Amino acid sequence: MSIRRRWGTADVPDRTGTTAVVTGASSGIGLHLAEELARRGAHVVLAVRDPERGAAAADRVRAGVPAAALTVQELDLADLASVRAGAKELRARFPRIDLLVNNAGVMWTDRARTPDGHELQFATNHLGHFALTGLLLDTLRAVPGARVVTISSYLHRLGRIDFRDLDAERRYSRYRAYNQSKLANLMFALELHRRLTESGSGLASLAAHPGLAATGLGRDFPAPVRRFGPVFAPLFLQPAAMGMLPGLRAATDAGARSGEFYGPLGLTQTRGAPGLVRPGRAARDAEVRRRLWDESERLTGVRPLF
């Protein structure tokens, strides 16, 4: 009896001649994704809020992959004007985009509003990526085999889309806002898959989550968590390089299909090798997904055309 080997970075096919845009690529999962894609020959665009941090990240990738083809693109997902400007520049510079990885995010931030007046976590994690994908959709659809991969979270299972208070104007909980934003990420990926399929498009929309991974998101944690987190983190968190694997598999595995969701296969899906996982119950509500899409169009002013 043969034992099937676990999927890993060695399984990533050659990506020479392709262009991949990775948001939040200056650290954590996004940086690891960028490095692996560059290692396989892709031209990787590091779409980041801070160009200086993006340039430093590019240097780190080149240290491991000297021949890496990299571009740093300024893109602040919390600011819809920046998203529009960044998307315009990407379309002008890269008439071919084979892969968009919606990875960037913030977690458990203090209450804050974006320049557009939206709650920070919902705006950065969901609305910015919704707008970016919509603005790049025609470019992506023109490329055979292109994919959009949206990174959700294990905590999407605790999320609920509160249409009465999407922007947390009535009350704010850093945890509730984060869970809602990551549920929105997964719902967006699944609804995008449905709309692409119905339109007859070959563009694929997939989702992934890293389990519980040690990433730079901890910079926004409350002070007590930052203080004691390093002591307990090794007991619960897997390295960012492992947390990156579900997203990398969704982005590159030839056997991956539109509408699929990848995550760690270990107990409770918090760590382990990457594979197919089932979305939480709330994410499977098709009516809520359609309504969230409509609200996202209204809040961003971006209406993706199919």
UniProtKB/TrEMBL annotation:
Signal peptide: none annotated. Keywords: Oxidoreductase. It holds the Pfam family adh_short. InterPro entries: NAD(P)-bd_dom_sf (IPR036291), SDR_fam (IPR002347). One of its GO terms (molecular function) is oxidoreductase activity. SUPFAM superfamilies: NAD(P)-binding Rossmann-fold domains. PANTHER family: PHOSPHATIDYLINOSITOL-GLYCAN BIOSYNTHESIS CLASS F PROTEIN (PTHR43157:SF31), PHOSPHATIDYLINOSITOL-GLYCAN BIOSYNTHESIS CLASS F PROTEIN-RELATED (PTHR43157). This is Oxidoreductase. It comes from Streptomyces griseus subsp. griseus (strain JCM 4626 / CBS 651.72 / NBRC 13350 / KCC S-0626 / ISP 5235). The lineage of its organism: Bacteria, Bacillati, Actinomycetota, Actinomycetes, Kitasatosporales.
